[in-house]
Amino acid sequence: MKIKFSNPNIFNEDLNLVKNIIKSGWLAHGKYTLLFENEIKKFTKAKYCCLVSSCTAGLHLSCIASGFKKGDEVIVPAMTHTATAHAVEYTGAKVVFADNHNFTGNLNLKSIKKKITNKTRGLIVVHMSGIPCEMTEIVNFCKKKNIIIIEDCAHALGTFHKKKHVGNFGVTGSFSFYPTKQITTGEGGAVVTNDLKFYKKIKKLKGFGIDKDIKDRKKQGEYDVKDLGYNYRMTDFQAALGYKQIKKYKNNLKIRKKIAKRYIKNLQNLKGVVFEPFSNNNSYFVFQIFCQKRDFILKEFKKLGIGVSVHYSTPINRMSYYKNKYKINLKDYVNSDLYSKTNISLPVYPKLKNFEIDFICKTLIKLTRNEK
């Protein structure tokens, strides 16, 4: 039995819309960019949204808009995708790694406090695998210390903390629409914010720093560039693909939660496998489990054609670029190391069938018990 790790929730009507846009020849600056941004605002309850070419681009622009520069320190989790740290590094600021909480992969206030110095200017929190960070405590602490919070919501479309969608706690929240994510535009992302100045800055910087939208130009080609910007825009046919998916996302999210409950029911009495209890606040990008026999299980799953993944197998502080540049004391990251050696991401997507979930669980139980 072959089971995919991810399978985008895309239908023929979505593909037909993309096809029609491509045929029209109007591939950028179209109406679906605005429609998709409006739907993201509606879903997250954020005041402003700006589509970008990737979540990484969104994080980079957020760091620039926050004013991070050489001499500043910005705290990021050791256990996350390298893009989180890269976004800081691009600005010239120093990346400071904090250890993660066990079995959520998220930063908590205790881990953050250990890394605070008089140079700390910012903090990027990551809602790993769709699990929300404890934002109330983090926000209260950062306000007192005048530390800017940026949220990496790459895994977290549909994730809430105390009935508030993540991305609304920091100055910005950046989402990913990579192929394996809850909704996809191939490559792509979005930045949400409730700060008009941040929105205007990010919107300008994503399009080369050009000061006028096409619709606002009195004469063709008449515009000025006042800031060094980037080409971080999303095409309109990508936006259309995302728009169609987010319109259906509430149902997608319900199915994800049902899948998580089924995993929990099937695996609840399995010794040697640990996972977080069910939470309605979790968007279940994946269903993460932790086990000491991780590498053996991954090998056997691959033989059987069961698609799983690892988020992630190497903490960023152990990657050569950062380890060599910052001479990091690796003994400070016990939780991140354990997390990296034991985590497995099981698939969660609406097209996943109950019998496929059950097969994954039965196989995992056999492998954990060393049954042939």
**Would you tell me which CATH topology of the largest domain applies?**
Aspartate Aminotransferase, domain 2
Distance between the termini: 17 Å
Q: Mean of residue pLDDT?
A: 95
CATH-derived architecture of the largest domain: 3-Layer(aba) Sandwich
Oligomeric status:
single chain
Beta-strand percent range: 5-15%
Largest sheet: 7 strands, mixed
- Name the CATH homologous superfamily of the largest domain: Type I PLP-dependent aspartate aminotransferase-like (Major domain)
Would you kindly provide a written description of the structure presented here, covering whatever features stand out?
This protein starts with 11 loop residues before the first helix and ends with a helix. It is built from 13 helices and twelve strands. The protein is α/β, with parallel strands linked by helices and 372 residues long. It is globular. It folds into two domains: 12-247, 3-Layer(aba) Sandwich (Aspartate Aminotransferase, domain 2); 249-368, Aspartate Aminotransferase, domain 1, CATH 3.90.1150. The longest helix is centred in the C-terminal third of the chain and has 19 residues, at 249-267. The chain has a seven-stranded mixed β-sheet, sandwiched between helices. The protein has a three-stranded antiparallel β-sheet with strand order 10-11-12. Strands 6-7 form a two-stranded antiparallel sheet. It has helices spanning 12-24, 31-44, 55-65, 82-89, 109-113, 135-145, 196-205, 236-247, 249-267, 294-304, 320-326, 334-342, 354-368, and strands at residues 48-52, 73-77, 94-98, 120-126, 148-152, 160-161, 164-165, 172-176, 189-193, 273-274, 287-291, 343-346. Helix 6 (135-145) links the parallel strand 4 and strand 5.
